[in-house]
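Memo to structure team: turn this sequence into structure tokens by end of day. - J.P.
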Amino acid sequence: MTIPNGIPGIEDRVNLLYTCGVKRGRLDLDRFVDSASTRAAKLFGLFPRKGTIAVGSDADLVIYDPDYRGVVTAISHHVNNDYSGFEGMKIEGRPSVVTVRGKIQVRDGKFVGERGRGRMLKREPSHF
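Reply from structure team:
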């Protein structure tokens, strides 16, 4: 028996949340940031190292371009999938710059950083 592995989409989730939430008036910008960053870091036991801009945090920052317009396509993905469940959906906004521990890793949708800069973080299980 083959069990489906779900839908690929990690690369698109934040952009779809912004497009369908913020741009459609269903989610304000503060709630978007809280959902995509702060609350996620808390749920995964990584706050305050992640999910906030503060002394002692990792300086992983996203500068978001609300004026970007694009279309989700499997061909343009950076993940190793040959399809997208969101194929053809229009997005409004995307990260223009992403830093990892203070160094630019992504600029305008392209990886420009240092390979291996990411780190796996040990964390305690969180129960919510």
